[in-house]
Amino acid sequence: MFMRRSTVSVNIEKLYEKLLKRGKMHVRVDEVAGYLCISEKSAGRLLSRMAEKGFLEKWGNGIYLLKTDVKRTGLRDS
User: Which InterPro entries does the record cross-reference, listed alphabetically (predicted)?
Assistant: First the structure.
């Protein structure tokens, strides 16, 4: 039996805003994986993409620092 692979789009701006509302300035890959019910590998790719777009800064192994000076642009990414 074959497992079907699906694609999910994530609005990274909305995710960024939700992460900011937590009141913490850092986020871990495993936290995002649990929050979105995705694998840690997928969460790591998502956070890496968010860092490339300027929402986060890689801080350590699996830890990202949220930037507070991000312009709201309505970006949508998968």
Answer: WH_DNA-bd_sf
